[in-house]
Design a protein that fits this description.
five-stranded mixed β-sheet; single chain; five-stranded antiparallel β-sheet; alpha+beta
């Protein structure tokens, strides 16, 4: 009799566990779905949708990360000209494009000033100096990205006044065919202008990010 009473009890326990299993499985399955949804949300937020840029972010190894749009970029150029009337903010360049040669006159803010002027980026932050910290800023570079994730790099040594000292411009206006200064339109509100480049590959239009970074340490081991 005792044995026959234990069989229903054992059956009841087994039945309960079986009923619980789908619930436990469902709760575990929800975790990866949640992670997938979170990743998808982040991707949608940062994906390269393309289109006309309305602003760009100056960030990375700079003291004053800032978001720029036409109004404050134009005001920054005016402020810089008051500080230094001799500052070059107008450049005429010729470069090759996919549709042939092109010559333009652009107006904007020198990239070096955008990064280093106290009214703008406030100067470079120390980056990755590698094994030898001498002139560590020569390991730094500027990544300029467009809204479609097209990107190009300018080395800090190219724009540092004591080295190449090239006036790379973040332009927001140009001369039209009638000689009138107009704001950029199909190029986004800002584009990169790299005088001296024969091809226009680094003339990034529709700028959305200007990020200062450092080259990583060398992967090669010393022998």
């Amino acid at each position: 009799m005792r044995f026959s009473r234990k069989i229903p009890i054992a059956s009841l326990i087994l039945s309960t566990l079986v009923l619980w299993q789908p619930t436990l499985a469902d709760s575990n399955n929800n975790l990866p779905r949640f992670r997938e949804q979170k990743i998808a949300t982040l991707w949608n937020k940062n994906k390269c949708s393309g289109g006309i840029s309305q602003n760009f972010r100056l960030d990375g190894e700079v003291n004053n990360p800032t978001t720029y749009h036409l109004y404050n970029l134009k005001n920054l150029r005016n402020t810089l000209k008051i500080q230094n009337p001799g500052l070059v903010t107008e450049i005429t360049v010729s470069f090759q494009t996919g549709s042939g040669p092109r010559t333009e006159t652009y107006y904007g803010v020198p990239l070096w000033e955008l990064i280093n002027n106290p009214k703008a980026g406030g100067g470079l932050k120390p980056g990755n100096s590698g094994l030898n910290p001498k002139n560590s800023f020569l390991r730094q570079y500027v990544l300029v990205e467009a809204t479609d994730c097209y990107g190009a790099v300018v080395a800090i040594g190219e724009i540092q006044p004591n080295f190449e000292g090239k006036t790379v411009l973040v332009a927001f206006a140009k001369k039209d065919s009638n000689g009138k200064v107009v704001y950029l339109a199909d190029e986004g509100f800002a584009r990169l202008v790299v005088p001296g480049d024969k091809a226009g590959g680094r003339y990034v239009s529709n700028v959305r990010n200007i990020i200062v970074l450092s080259a990583p340490p060398s992967p090669l081991k010393q022998k």
